[in-house]
Amino acid sequence: MKDLICVSYNVKGLNSPIKRKKVLNQLKNFKCSIAMLQETHLSEKEHGKLRREWVEQQYSSTYQDGRKRGVVILVSRSTYFHHEKTFADREGRYVMVIGSVGGSKITLLNLYAPNEDCPQFFKNIASLIAEQSEGMILVGGDFNCTLKAAVDRLPARNGPKSKKSCSLNTMIKELGLVDVWRQLHPREKDFTFYSHVHRSHSRLDMFLMPRTDLYRARQCSIEAITISDHAPVCLNLRMNPNNHFKYWRANVSILNNETIRQELQKSLTEYIQFNDNNEVSPSIMWESAKSYLRGNIIAISSRLKKERLAEQIELENKIKKLEKVYQVTKDTGTLNSLKEQRQKLDDLLTYKAEGQLRFANQKYYQYGNRASRLLAFQLRKEQSSRVVHKIKCPNSGKIVCQPKEVAKAFSLYYQELYKEEKVPNKIEKIEQFLNLINLSELSQEEAELITNPITSEEIKNSIGKLKNNKSPGVDGLPGEYYKFFEKELTPVLCKVYNYALFKGDPPQSWSEAIISVIHKESKDPTLCMSYRPISLLCVDLKILTAIIANRIQKHIKKLVKPDQTGFISRRQGSDNVRRALNLQIMAQERDTSSMFLSLDAEKAFDRVDWDFLQQTLRHMGFNETFILWVQTLYKNPRSRVRVNGHCSDFFSLGRGTRQGEVLSPSLFALSIEPLAELIRSNPLIQGIRDETNTQHKLSLFADDILLFLENPVTSVPALLSNLEDYGTVSGYKINTNKSEALMIVGSWPTQLDHLVSFRHSKQGFRYLGVIITPKTNQLLALNYDRLFGKIRGDLDRWNLLPLTFMGRIECIRMNILPRLLFLFQNLPILIPQSTFKLLESITSKFIWQNKRPRVRLKILMSGKEKGGLKLPNFRMYYWAAQLKSMAAWIIRDPEMQWVAMEEYSLPGISLRSLPFLNPQSWKRIKLTNPWVKHTVKIWNQVLKILKGNVTMSRAIPISGNIEFLPSLSDRSFERWAEKGLITVNQLFEKNTFKSFAQLRAKYALPPGDHYRYLQLRDYITKHKDWDKVRREPLGLENHFIKLLEKSGTLKNQVSLIYQKLLIDMSDNTYHIKQQWEMELNITLDDVTWESVCCSCHRGVGSQMWKEFDWKVKLRFFRTPLKTFLSKSSVCDKCWRGCGFVGDQTHIFWDCVYIQQYWMDVKNVIQNILSVNLPMDPLIFLLDIFPDGFSYEQHFLLHLLLMTARKLITIHWLKPETPTVAQWLLKTRHVYTMERITAQLQLKVPTFEKKWRLIIKYLERTLKP
């Protein structure tokens, strides 16, 4: 197909026939295919006059109140454009057309932006594009602002951008669009408009298109300013069909059909029974079975299509016959039959389009308030970021843009990367290297446990953990099929797995992978090495590798020391950061020249040498059977790169662990452990010493290595020697130019200048997402200040997005909270209260769109049972993250080395007891470790806010309590702890101090300990705050008491502590309950009100409906009375004309004009559910139902009443009242959306069970 020539042109009025002729001739000379004209100043009728000469189609938007504005899209006769949809505003500002050119879907948007500094215009345009556009997007027009005033204006402007320009830049960034002319002319300056008034040039006219399609742009030029005061902008687009490579993927939706599911089960079972006869290997049989299943799925899909086609032909024949009969008889019955058959045919022909529309509506229905529109923007942005629009070819060094050439460039790069390095006598060198290192080993029994035959139970557990909607491998079978046919497939997989592993004969599909590339943030996007390769593997292989990885994880801690925290159970990267911060303090106290060195490994996972890996496994005690397993999994592997929808040819792999399956991280951790052990055991490499004179040399998180070095002059050369030795045998390679060194004590040794090319950072460097600084007092500014700036910028940008109220809350929860929480957990530093007030302020402004809040922020932050929406409370999350360190002190996991280091900083005192001591004792102890001091300070601060007992907590352990001196010298109290009597809290029965007899009976204390009991009782009962000690502990205290008494893990500690804080400190909505009580003249207990609040979040899956239900029960809507109270000039009477005050209860229930509606609703519900329902507003408004309802009745009653309330808000401020017919149509819509949701989630049987009471009624009363 020939190229498209697109022209954007502000014509400054086309009222003159002569000027119209000039413009059309000029466009014809450009050989224009599609013209986007702005400021036509024409009416709708006059726009039609442009359809002449070379113009075939015309789509316009006209300003209704005068001869100004006006935009039009003209399509030439030679351009075969198939029109589908048009979107145009009434202000003559934009027109958007969706159609196709040569079979390629395209969206054309022509706009004329306002001259005023109004950012809302581009917000609306962004929403239109995100929600309605299809296929390739091309936006052209006069934007009336520049993107960058410094380069797009002459004279240049360096001042602040206008709001409109900021909004346009945000739209471009969020939608993944690019300015085509600037992309093709990055260093040039040219302009489309000259202002005689300001004597300035500007580039206001441009074309925007997605980065994903930028390769289509052959040329973009700015022509001369002639007929108008604007220059035409011409764009030459390559429109050759882009034949994307598509692997076949099984259609999951057919599994919702019970008949088809049974058919597939039967055929699969029969095939396996017939072919599993030991005549062929299980691997070949399994490959054939997958092929057979694929064939059946394709055949079924084809059959369904043919059945629909046959039905269509049958209906067409019936219509022809009925038409002939009716022409003769003119019979009314025949006419009705003819109409019926025509309707059936119309329904069938629109089935696909209707289905697509319903599924599109379902996505908005289900995720409407889960930041779905944000996700629509982010999806386009993500797609743009995944597309590689240009790349440097590794062979020629040239930049290539065409998708096939880009895929080939990546293929060449990975072929070289995965090529095995030929090293003479490699095995001997590997053995010599490993013999110098003392690696930990598995016992024979542990090694045999790992290589036991794969069991059916393991396969079932692994299948159960598969996630839906994940891309399959080359066989096209996603995880959903394994879940549905688990019973049939498990015994087959068990046989195949054990045969393949023990015989070394895997199925062919296990060796093939598709590589998708993901760009690494802040890396050069034109270099292949800046992308992370992710291998898409077959699901059956993923199931097996998950089983093997799970077995290794049970023993890996014995083989890999705690320095390595990446991808190992119960080890966290935050431990590395806390350890580094402690070592920094200790090094500064010792005042010895010390350095932190962050190593940047070049493609560490992809360079792992297989021979080295296998020899390492042998030295770690893995038996030869396991080595065979690894060889089987990596037998003759080959991959192909898929990028921009195109696939390269297959190429072989000679090294590397595939990123994309769960076994690779474990294998990599094992392969890099020899390097870690080599560094640990090298006496020339001096690590930073702790309080016990123990050296700490390194921390690892997978391939991210941070070294702690004393005396760098001697340590660094020894380190470089170790790295070289390890790299020679393993393939590991350090990128020295990107590795960074930070002197934390002393100055940079000049002796190293000729040895290393590490970057010497004076400000700090980033490690695991945290900026490590030379001075700890710089941590706040360099980490949080930057993040707060980004958050403020993001919230400003997201104001562009057309999000709902709850959608904005989801944005905070899903995007802002994780970024803050990451730093909260990694950095034990004090954040000023003013910072949290600022965060709350900008959050509130974002949620309420700079309007007055209708609900207090503290209520939104409350739990759902208290009427809140779980908006994150950043201050509480900060406290919870800081108090997680206290939980670590209590748990005392030996793997967390920083806990022992902080313990050593307090000689003679247990960290388990420290937080619960009187703060006066902290002063006597003289805490020197700033991180310990910070943690107890936060604990004390939280206790004061909660009004807890600061001087003595019931959580304090009895043994080792420095305030109870006998516990320090008498070992009997330690024996009490061994028997389970650990904390002071265990001495109480609610508010009463237990007797010795009670304690003796429960904990088996010896009689001789009675005196010790008296000592302890005397110490506690005579405490100055005895009355406070007697009180029940706070929920937060109870949490730590349970950890002390029953131990536990750090898993989910932040969430658990946050929940305790939320319970103790959050606001409630009892004032709203009182308003309902006053209007309804009733009394609601607190438990009932909490049930009402919780009911808002149950039932249907749609977040929009949950938001609506919450708004009704929290009295969110502005009734006439509420409006009158804030603005006395407004009438407070009901708008329906009844003459009564329009409060919440009146509008929804008491109004005489709405009572008949509720009576009709009640009668229908009683008919559907077969129940007697009293006319009680507690039922109809607050969902407080009488006892005796089944689960299905309760669910449907809640849903039916919620949709009935929705009809009232749809008629808000309207005198007419809703009808039962309208209510049933709305219910039908909810039913349709919920059914489609169930189909997508493969939960149709559950859906039908819940909806069975209403399905027949809807089918009987409403036509689908």
UniProtKB/TrEMBL annotation:
<dbReference type="InterPro" id="IPR036691">
    <property type="entry name" value="Endo/exonu/phosph_ase_sf"/>
</dbReference>
<feature type="domain" description="Reverse transcriptase">
    <location>
        <begin position="499"/>
        <end position="772"/>
    </location>
</feature>
<keyword id="KW-0175">Coiled coil</keyword>
<dbReference type="GO" id="GO:0003824">
    <property type="term" value="F:catalytic activity"/>
</dbReference>
<feature type="coiled-coil region">
    <location>
        <begin position="305"/>
        <end position="332"/>
    </location>
</feature>
<dbReference type="InterPro" id="IPR005135">
    <property type="entry name" value="Endo/exonuclease/phosphatase"/>
</dbReference>
<dbReference type="Pfam" id="PF00078">
    <property type="entry name" value="RVT_1"/>
</dbReference>
<protein>
    <recommendedName>
        <fullName>Reverse transcriptase domain-containing protein</fullName>
    </recommendedName>
</protein>
<dbReference type="InterPro" id="IPR000477">
    <property type="entry name" value="RT_dom"/>
</dbReference>
<dbReference type="Pfam" id="PF03372">
    <property type="entry name" value="Exo_endo_phos"/>
</dbReference>
<dbReference type="InterPro" id="IPR043502">
    <property type="entry name" value="DNA/RNA_pol_sf"/>
</dbReference>
